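Ticket #4471: complex job returned nothing on first submit. Input attached below:
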Amino acid sequence: MKKNLGILGILMVVFLATAYGSKSFFTPYNLFNLVERSSLYGIIGIGVAFVIITSGIDLSIGSLIGLVAVMFPFVVVEHQMSLGAGLMAVFGLSLAVGVTHGLLITKLKLQPFVVTLCGLMIYRGLARWLVSDKTMGYGNESFAGLKVLVGNASQLPGCASLPGAKHVPVVFLILIVLGTVAAIFLNKTIYGRYLLALGRNEQAARFSGINTTKMIILAYVLCSMISGLGGLLFALDYGSIQPDSFGNFYELYAIAAAVLGGCSLRGGEGSIFGIVLGAALMRLLMNSISMLGIDDQLEPTVIGFVILIGVIVDQLVKRIAAHRRAVLQARQAS
Amino acid sequence: MILQRRSRLSLLLMLLLFAPFSGCAERDTQSGNGGSGGASSGAATPKVAYVTNGIASFWVIAEKGAMDGGKEFNADVNVQMPANGVEDQKRMCQDLLAQGIDGIAISPIDPDNQGDLLSEISQHTKLITQDSDAPDSDRLCYIGVDNYTAGRMCGALVREAMPEGGSVMIFVGRLGQANARLRRQGVIDELLDRDPDPNRYDEPGAGEIKGDKYSVLDTRTDGFDFGKAKANAQDAIAKYDDLGCMVGLFAYNPPLMLDAVREANKIGKIKIVAFDEEAASLQGIVDGEVYGTVVQNPYKYGYESVRILAGLARGDESVIPEGGFIDIPARQIRKDNVDEFWTELKRLTATGTPAPETSADETEAEEANDDKAEPAAESEKTE
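Support reply: We reran it on our side without changes. The output follows.
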C-alpha cells in the first residue's frame, strides 16, 4: 500500500481537480462509465503484470484481444456453434498463445520483445483474414446472456433489489475478484514469490531450485488468458469489432498501467493494487480532459506526461529511501 | 521520515498537476460560443455536439460547417473526432452525455452493432445521424449522402476515364465501415452494368471480378495507415502491367496513389479516379493527372447538423424534414468544373465566411442522383 501512495495521490488530485472544474464529472452516470472503463483496462493490466514481473513483456495483447473479439462471434454466429464452444475456442486459443510464447522464450531463448512483437502482427493478420475484414457484431441474441457481464450489478441474478447495485458495473466486480486472486497468488503463494524472485535474478532463482522455465511459461499463459478474458469483455462492451483496429495499442495501455502502478520493466517488482490504480489514472485523465474541455488533441501528451511524472517520482522516492537506508546503516555500524 | 519526504514529493506533484488543470477549468467556464466542453450554460445557447467517425481533412471541413452553424444559430458546438474507432466514439459520446449536452449529431462507425450506444444517446438527448445512417435507432433524422449512389457516380467517372474498358484496382482505408463497402459496391456494380442493389456484396477476397468491358482486379485496404496505403498502390502498379485505372475511395487514398503513379512514370497510362476533396486530388484534376473525383459536402453536414440540433434544443420540431432524411447529394468533379468547386470550397473553409444557402453544382448532382436507392436501406449492408 505504501508504495502506491504516489499514484494514489495523483489519482486523488486529478479526481478532485476535475470534480472542482466540471459539475458534470461527479455524477452517477459519469462515475459509472469511468469505473467501467478503468476496470476493463485494469483487467488487462493485471495480465501483463505477471509477464513484466518476470522481466518479460507482452506486446501482442492488443492483437490477441482483436483476434479473440473476432473469433467469438465467428464461431458462435457464423458457424452456429454453442456459446460454450465459443468460449472454449476463445480460451483455448489464449492458452495456446500463452504456451507458445512461453516455450519460445524459455526453450528457444528468444527475447520476449521479439516473440510477442511477432505475435502482435500474426494475430492481427489472422483476425483480419478469418473474417475477411468484415466488422463483427455482438448484437446477436446468443450473446444476450453474456452482455450482463458489461452491464450493471442489478442485472445479475438475485441482485435486482440490492440498493445501489445499478451504479456498480459488473466488470468492476470481475476486476475485484481477479485482482484479489492475483494479489493473493503473487504475494501469499510460493509460486507468486517464485515469479518475483526470478524476475529479480533468474539465474539465482534457478540455482536456488526454482523451475524458472515452468514459471515463465505460467506467466505468459496467465497473461494471455487474462487478455483473452479482457478481449471478450471489451468486445461485449463495444459491440462492434473492426478486425483491423480493435485492440490496437491496448498492450501499451496495459504496460503503461503496470509501470505507473509500480512494476519495474526490469522485473521483480509490482503490485496488483498499483496496476489497477495506474489503469484508473489513465482513464480518469481521458475523462477529465473531455470534462474540463481541454483540447482532446492534447490527450496523449497529457497522459504521456503524467506517466513520466509518475515514474520520475517513483524513481526519486526509491533513491531517497536507498540513501536514507545507507546513512542509517552507516550510523548503526559506527 | 521517508514517509514525510514522500508526502512532500506527492504534494509538489499535486501542485504541479493541479495548476494546469485548475487553469483550464477556469478558462472553460469563461468560454462562450464555439468553446468545447464544460457544463451546460442554459437554454438560450444550446450546447450541441458533432461527433465524427475518425480524424481526417474531410472532418475538418465538416467542423468548419458545424462551427459556422454554431454562430449562425447561436449554439455552443463541441466537435469530437474519435482517433481509435468505436471505443473512442463510445467514450466521447458518454462524456458528452455526462456534460448534459442538448443534442448529438453522430456518424456511427458501425450502426448495426452500436445500437446500445445510440439508444443510450437517444434516451439522454436529441440524436441525429450524419454522414452514415442508423435507421434502426431512435435517431430523429439523417443528414448525408447515399454512399451506394456516390459509388456508382465514381464508377461512372471510371467509365469516362477509360471508355475502352480495362482493369481497375480499388483502394480504401477499411471495408468494415458501411460507407466504404457501399461505395466500393457502387463502383463495381456500375462497372459491371448491374442493376442498382445496395444490398449486394462482392467479397473482397474472392479474386478478380470480371465484367464485359471492365474487370476489378482487387480491393486493397490499409487501415488508415498512409504508408501502407502508398505501398498498396505501388505494389499494384508493380504487380499488374496492364492496370488501367486506380480508384481511391477514402480522401487520403488518391493523393498517395497519384504519388505512386508519378514515381512509376505511368501518369496517363494509369488513370486515377478519386473520392472526396483532398487538395492534392483537386490539384491532380487541375493538372490533368487525376480524371475526376466524387465529392460529398462535409461543410453542409456540419452546418445542417447544428441547425437541426439547435432548433430541436429550442423545441422547434419543424426543423426535421418529412421522412427524416436531409439529402446532401454527392457531386462529380472533373477538369471542367474543378476550379469553380475549389474556389467555393476555399471560400467555405476560410475563416469568418457566412454559411451558404445552396452550393454550386447541386443541380448536376441531383440529376446524377435520379436513380438513387432509398437512403434508409444504407446501413443494412454492414454485416
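Strands of chain A lie at 136-137, 240-241. Closing as resolved unless it happens again.
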